[in-house]
Amino acid sequence: MRKRLIGTVTSDKNSKTRRVEVKRLFQHPKYGKIVRGRTVCHVHDENNDSHQGDTVEIVESRPFSRLKRWELVRVVSAAADLRAAAAKEQELAADESEPEAAEGAAT
């Protein structure tokens, strides 16, 4: 059984290679506090499907190089889609606030 992780692409500068950060929470062994941690995985992306900011699913695989031990399974959500949705929400919010501003100026 191979390990499967979900993380965020932090670098897509190299061809067919991605740097993915997997965030995790764990309890500190001595103090017991819940601590945030991250694991950096270098991932093989054969078709250059993912880009910086994308959330991706990766699976453990044979070594591709000195650092690459993971392979891209799929892009869970693309960062471009999230940015487009956020921009659309901002436009809608701006359109709703414009009539209020015009009413205030007329008074």
- Low-pLDDT residue intervals, each spanning 5 or more residues: none
Average pLDDT, to the nearest integer? Answer: 89
Q: How many alpha or pi helices?
A: 1
- Counting structural domains, the number is 1
User: In CATH, what is the class?
Assistant: Mainly Beta
Q: Which structural class fits the helix and strand makeup?
A: alpha+beta
What's the main sheet like? 5 strands, mixed, barrel
> What name does the CATH topology carry?
OB fold (Dihydrolipoamide Acetyltransferase, E2P)
Features:
43% strand, 107 residues, alpha+beta, five-stranded mixed barrel, flat
Layout of helices and strands:
Layout: E1 4-11, E2 17-27, E3 34-44, E4 55-60, E5 68-77, H1 79-106
Parallel strand pairs: 3-5
Antiparallel strand pairs: 1-2, 1-4, 2-3, 4-5
Description:
The chain is an alpha+beta fold and 107 residues long. It has one domain (4-78): Nucleic acid-binding proteins (OB fold (Dihydrolipoamide Acetyltransferase, E2P)), CATH 2.40.50. Helices cover 26% and strands 43% of the residues. It has one helix at residues 79-106; strands at residues 4-11, 17-27, 34-44, 55-60, 68-77. A 5-stranded mixed beta barrel has the order 1-2-3-5-4.
